[in-house]
Amino acid sequence: MNNEQFKRFYTDKVTVRLTALFVFITTGIALGTHNHWLAWLLSLDFALRAFTYVSSPVGLAVKAVRRAIPWNQQPVFAAPKKFAAGIGFVMSLTLSALLFFSATIAAYSVGSILLTCAVLESAFSICVGCYVYDIVVAPLANKRNTSIYSTPR
């Protein structure tokens, strides 16, 4: 597998965990300071990771850390991670709107869910969005693929 295929279909486990750590820190600062702009920037970062192949600002920061401290590459399938980034986009955009409208209790509720998901990924390599992907998206994709390739009897 060449490097371009790796980038498209796989990502690195350590990079994902470091990204989750950056998300945890950014979300914590946004909640602690009630800064809706920081939450909006986080949602933009999630959007870049979920819907494009362009490097996001957090991704660039993680790459700099990876260059400074080289770890062995541990490939993981990228589709569930991109799906989880899409969920993170929705959550951080919701957090930004709630902080903007000073809905503090709701903002802390959404923010604490985002913080919990980020700490589970960064500390324990447990991707909540990936489990949702495996339960919801993968069966639908498999059902579609089997119906396309099945022959009528």
Describe it.
The protein is globular. By secondary structure, it is mostly helical. It has helices at 3-9, 13-33, 36-51, 57-68, 78-100, 104-124, 128-149; strands at residues 10-12, 75-77. It has a two-stranded antiparallel sheet with strand order 1-2. The longest helix is centred in the middle third of the chain and has 23 residues, at 78-100. It has 7 helices and 2 strands, in the order αβαααβααα.
Shape designation: globular
Note the main sheet: 2 strands, antiparallel
Question: How many strands?
Answer: 2
Topology as a string of helices (H) and strands (E)? HEHHHEHHH
| Strand percent estimate | under 5%
What is the structural class?
mainly alpha
Helix content: over 70%
Adjacency order of strands in the biggest sheet:
1-2
Average pLDDT number:
91
Instruction: Please report the distance between the alpha carbons of the first and last residues.
Output: 38 Å
| Sequence stretches where pLDDT stays below 50 over 5 or more residues | none
Q: What Rg, in angstroms, do the CA atoms define?
A: 17 Å
The number of helices is: 7
In brief:
The chain is mostly helical. It is 80% helix and 4% strand.
What's the helix and strand layout?
Layout: H1 3-9, E1 10-12, H2 13-33, H3 36-51, H4 57-68, E2 75-77, H5 78-100, H6 104-124, H7 128-149
Antiparallel strand pairs: 1-2
Helix pairs in contact: 2-3, 2-4, 2-6, 3-5, 5-6, 5-7
Note the main attributes of this structure.
7 helices; mainly alpha; globular; 153 residues
